Amino acid sequence: MILDLIRERAQDILLLAEFFLDKFAKQYGKPAASFDPDVVRLFERYAWPGNVRELQNVVEHAVIFSTGSVISLNHLPSYLLNKAPDSDSLPLDPLEREEKKMIDYWLQKANGNVSEVARRLNRSRATIYRKIKQYGLNLSKYSNID
Fold it and tell me: What does the alpha-carbon distance between residue 96 and residue 129 come to, in Å, rounded to a whole number?
């Protein structure tokens, strides 16, 4: 049955998401053409209890709220980000491990000053806060460094 498709064929999540992206971008006259790698990773890790309909609704929401050609985490419904699996429950890929190390390093150097870390890494503060949460880093441990 089509509703069980995502559970049985997790490798097709991105294919379905891209199909819906194309469909809704045309429907709403939006330039959305691709997903940010963080979105792809979240889509692959998320359990999708609502199956195909949930994926379709998430992509439609993202297209409606997108402003450019790339769908980022900021465009996704907030419930999805709150239900996303914690980094502790899934192994990090090599790039994520390096990113975590880099954020940890700069948090130590900047005594936990997230604005400084964001500036050094050329990222927004919101992204750094999201990554701190994603990687399970504890900001309070950095503020006491001499």
Answer: 15
* Whether 107 contacts 129, CB under 8 Å: no
Which two three-digit tokens encode residue 81?
């980000």
Can you read off the two tokens belonging to residue 99?
């990113």
* Cα separations in angstroms, 75 against 16, 33, 61, 120, 121: 18, 13, 7, 25, 22
Query: Which of the residues in the chain have pLDDT under 70?
Result: 1-10, 83-93, 144-146
Distance CA 100, CA 44 (A): 20
Q: Are the C-beta atoms of 142 and 112 separated by less than 8 Å?
A: yes
**pTM (two decimals):** 0.56
Helix, strand, coil shares, percent, the chain, to 5: 70, 5, 30
Whose tokens are 């409606």? That residue is 64
